[in-house]
Amino acid sequence: MSSGPQRVRVVEVVRETVDAHSLVLEPEDPQPFESYRPGQFLTVRIPSERAGGAARCYSLSSSPHCQERLKVTVKRTVGGYGSNWLCDNVAEGMTLEVLRPSGMFTPKSLDDDVLLLAGGSGITPVMSILKSVLGAGAGAVTLVYANRDEQSVIFRDELVTLAKEHPDRLVVLHWLESLQGIPTAAGLRALTGPYTGRQVYICGPGPFMDLAQATLAAAGVPDSRLHIERFTSLTNDPFADVDVVELDVEDDDVGPPAEVEVQLDGEVTTVAWPRRTKLLDALRNAGLDAPFSCREGNCSACACVVLEGEAAMERNEVLDAHDLEDGLLLACQAFPISERFRITYEA
Ligand SMILES: Cc1cc2nc3c(=O)[nH]c(=O)nc-3n(C[C@H](O)[C@H](O)[C@H](O)COP(=O)(O)OP(=O)(O)OC[C@H]3O[C@@H](n4cnc5c(N)ncnc54)[C@H](O)[C@@H]3O)c2cc1C
Ligand code: FES
Predict the structure, then answer these.
(1) CATH topology (fold) of 258-344
(2) For the stretch 65-97, what's the b/e string if a residue is b when 16 or more beta carbons lie within 10 angstroms of its beta carbon?
(3) Which atom of ligand 1 sits closest to the CA of residue 60?
């Protein structure tokens, strides 16, 4: 499966609210999209005159378990380049280039009960998780959803319909700033109190996520059950050709390269991993099509699972304690500590 750009046709543009558009997409090659997981995102190429180009990540609001077409939902950011370009320019019939779905903000089991907290456009991956649990799992779902006012509630009608279809499994609790003011710890504590024994997924503006995380941690929810997706803009262009760096395979200062056995796209390959080289570079230099997006430790598109060996990450803004316990590693940030590794992209 290629981790390179994929072409997708926009088959519908849905105006969800005054400042949020959903783009329904049909891939030219469906295969890279077939096994996406709820909560994952696409990286979208945005045309730009700027050196380095522009690309932005957008979560899939569609569910892979509900026979839905691929859909991303973009909310305008004031003064933002990519979100406004997409909302102003994308029309039915256009073709966009995207990188295949990736990301770790995705439930392990659809049978677990979940507490979902979303603010504004943070509903996008949360909606995919919500529909997947209801459609294909047995878990109960409570959504706490914060918005400026009633008009800015993305997926309002769909949530009403789902609550009617699943009266004993779905609870939707809205927080509207126009009525209740900005969310407070006491308010969130009251809404989430009965559900703190569940797996928790949080996505929204930074201050909302910080408040939700602190409130739930204070209520005794361990890090291992708190899953957080932070929306940031990419600062480099993952669509650009990446220079193949000369690998320093025998570096006397730091010792010989580690050896890594990689399971990727149904094949097992053994690759040398020089000690001052990031794992992603070592793999791609060896001709493997290892996935990536931001290359900055922000998005988790490059995450693999370490089955054997110990590595250090230079930067990790995305994997939580639970992910690390499960052996996840950001290949774009990883340097070897051990001499021998086994990793997989197929866990
Ligand atoms: C995994 C992931 C999933 C995401 N999913 C979604 C989603 O489903 N829906 C969604 O709407 N968004 C999502 N995002 C966020 C999205 O990728 C963009 O970050 C968002 O749309 C803003 O991009 P923009 O280009 O419009 O804004 P940008 O141009 O990146 O600007 C962002 C802010 O920074 C300011 N700014 C820009 N340049 C400068 C500068 N040079 N100096 C100072 N300030 C500056 C802008 O004024 C603006 O306020 C996701 C992000 C990630 C990482
Ligand atoms: S490519 Fe984004 S974290 Fe590695």
Answers:
(1) Ubiquitin-like (UB roll) (3.10.20)
(2) beeeebbbbbbbbeeeebbbbbbeebeeeeebb
(3) 8
